[in-house]
Amino acid sequence: MKLFYCPARRNADQLSINDNLRGDVPESSSPPGGKVAYPGALGDYACSFGDNLSNAGEPSDDATATGALVRATATQTSNKLTILTWKSNTDFAALSDGLSNILLIGEKHVPIKHMTMGYLISTDKYIGDASIWNSDALENMGRAAGQANPLALGPNDNDTDVQPYVENFGSYHPGLCQFVFGDGSVHALAVSLDSKILGYLANRADGNAIPNY
Q1: What pLDDT digit, counting tens, does each position of 57-87 carry?
Q2: Cα separation, 137 vs 69, whole angstroms
Q3: What is the largest CA-CA distance in the chain?
Q4: Residue 46 C-beta-side C-alpha neighbours within 13 Å
Q5: Contact 202, 192 (CB under 8 A)
Q6: Which residue in 27, 94, 138, 195 is a FRET match for 34, CA 20 to 30 A apart?
Q7: Is 198 helix (H, G, I), strand (E, B) or coil?
Q8: End-to-end alpha-carbon separation of the chain, Å?
Q9: So where are the chain's domains?
Q10: What is the mean pLDDT of the chain?
């Protein structure tokens, strides 16, 4: 779906790879030759999981996350391809800082050399450019924003095979990263934005006054 892709980055006909070195998850459990990851449609936008104040290697995406969108309580089939039941853990009332002050969805950082890769098995580091329907690896559909996860300065940030988890927002637009806020408005934030202010915008209920930016 073209809606899931930034035209400045790539075409809408790209799928995640399905090899066992840099592949997607979830994996089918027992095909011939062992586990094989399911390929799926990529996407250039991610939910905001919050400000990741604890500087976790993998920011929380469950009910303890501070962002507008967090992982639902859900059950799925054994092959991980179908969600059977789900219940949201947030609603508009939970966004007490005000819908116009909270990041909802933004352009997710994907290092150029690692496009189409879900993660690196050799180093067990998530890149998060695998199929966005994936309910097993939230890195594919979510990012954190704040002092521990500033906006990427460009598409080459973290573009190495020995890297931290790629958990920040970033775009292919020079100097800017676009976000949808909780009220539906769209804003292009400067990648040089103070990461402390960025964290205020990512946290749905911290009560901090947001200065002009």
Answers
A1: 777 777 779 999 888 888 988 766 778 999 9
A2: 15
A3: 57
A4: 32
A5: no
A6: 138
A7: helix
A8: 33
A9: 1-213
A10: 84
Burial of 54 (0-12, 13-18, 19+ CB in 10 A): exposed
The pair of three-digit structure tokens given for residue 205, joined into one six-digit string: 């209920």
C-alpha 195 chain-centroid distance? 17
Q: Which residue has the tokens 């080459």?
A: 156
pLDDT tens digits for range 22-40: 555 555 555 444 556 667 7
Distance CA 137, CA 59 (A): 12
Cis peptide before 59 (omega within 30 of 0): no
The residue type of 148 is A
Contact 44, 4 (CB under 8 A): yes
Q: What is the pLDDT of residues 138-160, one digit of tens each?
A: 778 889 999 999 999 999 888 77
pLDDT band (50, 70, 90) for residue 115: confident
